[in-house]
Amino acid sequence: MPALARAEATLVEHYPRLVRLAYLILPPRLGRHRRVVVAHGVVQNALPARPWPLKHGRVPGPRADQAPVLGWIMRRVVGAALSYEHGNTRWRRALRPALPAVWGLRLTPRIGDAEELALEQQMATVPAEARAAFVLQHMEGYAPDAAAELLAAAGVTDPEAALRTAEVLGPQDGTRAGLLLDSVEFDPCTVQARPTDLLRRRHWRRWGAAAALLVAVVLTVGQSGGDAVSPDLDGRPAAGGAMVDPASLVHASATAWKVSSRIDFTVWPARGSLIDDRALLGHVLRTWARPGPGVRVSAAPGTGTGPSPAPPQLLYAGRVDDADVVLLYDGQRVVRYTQNMGRPAELTLGRADNSDVTTAAALVLSRTDGRTRFLFAPWVAESTTRDLLAPDNPARPLHVGDDGVSDTVPSPGLTGTCPNWPALQLRSSESIAEKHAFLLTDLGDLSPVHLTYTPPPGGGAPARQPREATGAAALVSWSHTACTLRSMADGGVRAVNNWIFAEQQLPENAGQAQWLCSRADTWNGPGRAIVRFQPPTTAAREPGTLVADARDTSYCSRFNQHILADVRWNAPSGTPYLLAAGSRAVARITVTGQVRADSTATTLAVKAAPGQSAELGALLSTGRKLAAVH
Q: Over 50: is that where the pLDDT of 239 sits?
């Protein structure tokens, strides 16, 4: 092994990057706090207590100009981090895994943007070996062969399989992947510290043994269904006095959004006629901390219902459609409290972390008699509505009060027939962006869904990115698929993008068809991709032929930008064909089986009788193989 003094100096010099490496490999199931603590413990214990021989020979360093001592340390860090995935104790014993002791605090890295969150969620779906391979290549600069060598030295039995799995992670641009991995989202050395049991510790210091009696009394009152706050019996954190005190609510200034580089719910000012009603706000906080049996609690998928760990921010409190409505935000969730005389109180929760100028532009205040009323962000300068099934009709003005509350608009029909599809078309203030208009639609959650559009690939042009769906082509695309949004209702959907990934000239001069992938991203991570074939005869409101409906997938996202699909189609003459199309990086499409064909373009058409077998495959311009989506 390297000289111990040299290894110690290298460890100190590269400590932050080594901790980041361990953090990215550790299993996400540990939680962000424990991953931070374990990552520091892995690196702090990476060197042996006394020198011993290096059994695996030379371990490659990440770059040719660096001494192998760093590679040797990385091998030990990688091996120790991998051990937490499979419960292997060999590395833990060898590295004396006494973790740093952290009492009374929760340490978490700062939250990054949507790209970093999506990458974090994607990495959670693959084994630790694949995470290690991805990080070694894109963050540490290892070539594939060198990464495989280090993984083998760290105890990975099949490094090549880990490298293959890592190919599906992150953006295809390796430079972009490295930038994401180097962001604050994955930096366990720059953390936020929050107390875990501050109130309980203060309480015990002040009252000593009397605390036990007080807890017993509070438990009794809480079980009786009153408003008193009690420790949570289902594992959620108990709510302290400050958490139910309306005076502790956070308020943003009316102009915060104009001077902030972070445009989301944190810069919404408190609005509404009841923001000074301490009795109402205190009741809402106590209800959220301990809902009684008469409170209806609902939450979007992947959204916790427990009380806020810190005083939440007040967004709105007022009288809406004969009901008291309060909106709160705790940095991760938006909570709506609704109390209508004669009806049970309702608590509705939805995810809102990593929101932005579009996904934090509006919240649903109320839904009554098939109509919806919204509260708009302070940066919304113009509000209109339009019917997505009538793309040629102009948008109609929507009146909004000085408090940001809109008039009611028709709600989309989530069941039955689909005669129209109302949507909001909003424009941001020029203080945010010039001429920035965007579409939102209500799918039953607290936050309306952001609709975007990616046009077909241009000849020789760079890959096109999602854009706002307000142009003529985007509106025509959404006129075909708007009614399919009903299958996503109440699913915690954050945004949906219509991507026309290919256009195809059909045989027998039948016109030009489009291949569409509708990508739905949820607030809690899992995505859904619906692939459709749209011949030129597809009428408005008709979505075309369903080709694939993939759930919990990265298809059609920034992390999986390649797609191949096929469909059976009959020409106007009645001749049956197999049609196939791929995204812009597809260099060759091959059909084998009873139907055989080959194309060096992104589309293919071959005669294929019904029942004839056909297996589809493609080769990307990078040399990687691509299977068809089904």
A: no
